Amino acid sequence: MHSRDNENEWIIAKAKELGFDLCGIAPVEGLADALHLQDWLERGYAGRMQYLHDPRRADIKQVLPEARSVIVCALNYNTDAPASTEAAAQSPDRGMHGWISRYAWGDDYHVVIGKKLEQLVESMRAHFIGSWQARAYVDTGPIDERLAAEQAGLGWQAKNTCLINEEFGSWLFLGLIVTSLELTPSTAVSAAPATDLCGNCRLCLDACPTEALVEPYVMDARRCISYLTIELRESIPEELRSPIGGQVFGCDICQDVCPWNRKAPMTSVQPFRARERLLAPELNWLLSLSEEEFRQTFTVSPIRRTKWRGLIRNACVAAGNLAGKYAAFTPERLQLRARLSELAASTDPLIAEHATWAVARLTAAE
Which residues are catalytic, by number? Predict the structure, then answer.
């Protein structure tokens, strides 16, 4: 028989050929947990992320009425650079440095994965005859990627709400192709979805400095450092500034402490290799960036998302938090104080507020 199973094998093999580390197929049924989503939204946990209220998230057929299957592809982005938790334990004589989330050390994953998904769709168009439809998304569609990946057998949704795969841990970017092709779900072939292997572990919950993980498998995004430093465009609540520490873009703490990430393999994707300057970047450098320099520096970087004023705001908070850890009158410290004083006089109220807060912290530490 020229079965759908054979077609699945062809798609998965083609995805691997294009460089994806994992590929699986899920049925459109069960790709939206409408009741859980509604409860989470009603608790206000989505914060300012209005796109999560999109009604299409509760019904994938509102995205593509003819949808029958979802092809889920994953790409490893782990590198051999240290974890944020390791860097935080290093000697203070390394200078005043912030921290950027591992996923943003290289090129923008939306572009890298988007190109690979386009190549996969093109290959499928040459392979599958007849009329059919496909729509690709990289973190841009009204679909729960992690739930789709779980349904496709690529891993389980962990207590820190990330998707974990036994081999790759949680260092995975996800991309989806929603299609009208009726394909056999991967879990029908393997007989069962991936088992939740978090067990009794709660390292991620205990390690979160802002207590964003309010209970296992439930995150209050309003408290998440990634949300505060990237998605939130407004003032960071004062009570959450100190717990942010030196994080200037995103946060990996709940992943860095996860046992499943200890032996995760390194990525072979060159665009995801770390840019040296983004590994624990100097706060003086970040705070000195003009808007034009920001645009040039982060042209192909996920860091563009926070925009210049967001990154400056975050760097001010990091500087205030690190104030008490370093000698008061080093040239580096004096340069930092001078720059923060300039920013405190900014005509942008958001930047002025956070710079003023940082200056007050430096003054108190001195």
Answer: 139
